[in-house]
Amino acid sequence: MLHKTRGIVLKTTDYSESSVIVQVFTEKFGMQSYLISGVKKSKGRIRMNMLQPLHLLDMIVYHKPSGNIQRISELRNDPVFESIPYDVVKSSLAIFLNEVLYRSIRQHSADERLFEFLSQSIEVLDHLTKGLANYHLWFLLQLTRYLGFYPQSRSSSGSLYFDLKNGVFTRDLPLHLHFIQGSLVNHFVNLLSCNTETLEQVKLSSLERKELLTKMLEYYHLHIESLGEIRSHLVLEEVLS
């Protein structure tokens, strides 16, 4: 049976000389794997440049609830990116966020709220001109809303620590090593309260940005079982430094 759905490309793996398996987070079915034949041929209807990290898709697919690998009838990029593939900072951000999403999203069922957040945020990134250096930090924090471990509201401006293990702000030093302290706590709060239009107002040095990213990845590891090692942030840090 044919279904129309939107999707977000998360991983493309070679399958044969001319075919690939693409893992797509879809609006209608959650995470799905699709076999696409002839994608490496010059005359193929679907080309590899349509399946790059975080590319947004409009698809007509065959879907079998019991199937491990599905098929695509039609596919197009919608919208077609204007800047992400051509801007080194944005493409590095896309590769990093793509890796985090691929390792974080597990469900094989629809999650329309998560899908809408992702698709809108990716479109915003394509058009964003200010605050790019902070975008990934904002994105990671907002994503936790949909993954189930968004930080508890700061109840007092006197909170000196953010407890990564329990997801709360506290005045007392946590009885473990997983926390944020000092000026990074204030930057963390500012990122929680800003939006993509005010990202540039969060003033971070390269070192502070790197330290915050390290803490946020630690936060993800504490709350997502079997997240695995995230590696693409090393390239991103080089690009942003």
Task: Give structural attributes.
alpha+beta; elongated; three-stranded antiparallel β-sheet; 241 residues
Any overview of this molecule?
The chain is of the alpha+beta class and 241 residues long. The protein is built from six helices and eight strands. The strands form two sheets. It has a five-stranded mixed beta barrel. A hairpin with a 5-residue loop joins strand 1 (2-14) and strand 2 (20-26). Helix 1 (88-104) runs antiparallel to helix 6. The mean pLDDT is 94.
Summarize the structure.
The chain has 241 residues and is α+β, with helices and mostly antiparallel strands. Helices cover 36% and strands 21% of the residues.
Give the N-to-C terminal Cα separation: 49 Å
Structural class: alpha+beta
What is the percent of helical residues?
A: 25-40%
Radius of gyration: 19 Å
Poorly predicted sequence stretches spanning 5 or more consecutive residues: none
Number of helices: 6
Kindly estimate the percentage of residues that lie in beta strands according to DSSP: 15-25%
Q: What's the number of extended β-strand segments?
A: 8
**What does the largest sheet look like?**
5 strands, mixed, barrel
Q: Give the CA-based shape.
A: elongated
User: H/E element string?
Assistant: EEEEEHHHEEEHHH
Mean pLDDT, nearest integer?
A: 94
- What is the spatial order of strands in the main beta sheet? 1-2-3-5-4
